[in-house]
Write a structure and sequence with these properties.
The chain is elongated. By secondary structure, it is an alpha+beta fold. The longest helix is centred in the first third of the chain and has 27 residues. A four-stranded antiparallel sheet has the order 4-1-8-7, with no helix packed on it. A four-stranded antiparallel sheet has the order 3-2-5-6, with no helix packed on it.
């Protein structure tokens, strides 16, 4: 009788420990991150002609780079990291970078451009996003589409 009571309490202790471990695990799965650092931007597909159905550059492929922008200004200018004379066979294009988003409600844009030497750069397209649209599952990467432009962003969440 006495022995049974002891084994029962050990059983309860085990159940209690398991519950404790489970509850600490579930806490880990619902973090409250306040920052996201973009570490790479990937262009999977894009248009190779402008709205007039003309090539971005006459005779050569576009020289593609990105900018991270908000509604008011350029936050990260990737002009120096352009890929020159790109064709469809060169996709996807990937840029490694580091840009911290500390206001998760900020409306951000990834602008994709063709670099031009003598006239203003051509705007190939853009995608827009707010990081707080992704705080449900806190993905380390997510994709966005706008017309034929398909962009994947990867990064790290932190406090
Ligand atoms: Ca051009
Ligand atoms: Ca070119």
């Amino acid at each position: 009788m006495k022995k049974k009571r002891i084994s029962l309490s050990i059983y309860h202790l085990c159940v209690f420990s398991v519950l404790l471990i489970l509850s600490s695990c579930s806490k880990e799965y619902s973090p409250n991150y306040t920052k996201f650092t973009i570490t790479s931007v990937k262009v999977n597909s894009m248009s190779f002609v402008n709205s007039g159905s003309k090539d971005w550059d006459p005779g050569t492929g576009p020289d593609v780079f990105i900018k991270i922008e908000d509604q008011y200004s350029v936050l990260l200018d990737g002009t120096v990291s352009k890929y020159q004379d790109i064709s469809d066979a060169n996709l996807p294009l990937i840029w490694s970078l580091e840009h911290e988003v500390s206001d998760l409600s900020e409306l951000l844009y990834i602008g994709v451009y063709d670099y031009d030497s003598f006239d203003p750069d051509d705007a190939i397209g853009y995608v827009s996003f707010k990081m707080n649209e992704h705080t449900g599952s806190y993905p380390e990467s997510f994709s966005m589409w706008n017309g034929s432009l398909w962009v994947t962003i990867s990064g790290e969440w932190s406090y």
